[in-house]
Amino acid sequence: MTARVAPCCGDFQAEGETHTLEPITRPSGTGRRTAAAALLVGLVALLLAPLTVLAPPAQAATLCIAQPGSTGCINGTVGNRTNPVEGADVTLLDENQVEIETQTTEADGKFAFQLDQAGTYYILVDPDSLPDGLEIRPPAKAFQGPDGSIKVDVKLGQSQAPALNVRDVDYDAGGAGFGEQLIQSIAQGLRLGLLLALASIGLSLIYGTTGLSNFAHAEQVTLGGMVGYGLCNVLGMNLWLGIVLTTLICGATGFFQDAVLWRPLRRRGLGLTQMMIVTIGLSLAAQYAFQFFVGASQKKVVVQNFDVVTIGPISLTGMSYVAMAISLVVIGVVGFVLLRTRVGQATRAVSDNPALAAASGIDVDRIVRGVWTIAAALAGLGGILYALVVSNGIRWDTGMQILLLLFAAVTLGGLGTAFGAFVGAIIIGLVVELAGPLGAPGDLKYAVALAILILLLLVRPQGLLGRAVRVG
Amino acid sequence: MDQIFFILQSVVGEAIAPATAGVAIAVIGLNIHFGYTGLLNIGQAGFMLLGAYGMAISITKGLPMVIAVLIGLLLALIFATILGAPTLKLRGDYLAIVTISAAEIIRYVGRLASLEGFTGGAQGIPGSQYSGPFRNLSFFGSGSWTLSPFNYETLGGSTAVRLLGLLVTIALITVTVLFVRRTKLAGVATRSPMADGLVITGLVVLSLLAVLFTFPQTLTRTGVDGWWVRGVAWTVVLICSLLVLLLVRSPWGRLLRGVREDEEAMRSLGKNVFAVKMQALIIGGMFGALGGMVYVLASTVQADALARQITFFAYTALLLGGAATIFGPVLGTVIFFGARILVREASRIYVPDSIIADNKTDVFSLMVVGVALMLLVVYRPQGILGDKRELRFHV
Question: Which residues 6+ apart lie within 8 Å of A382 measured at CB?
Answer without folding.
Answer: A195, A196, A197, A198, A199, A221, A224, A327
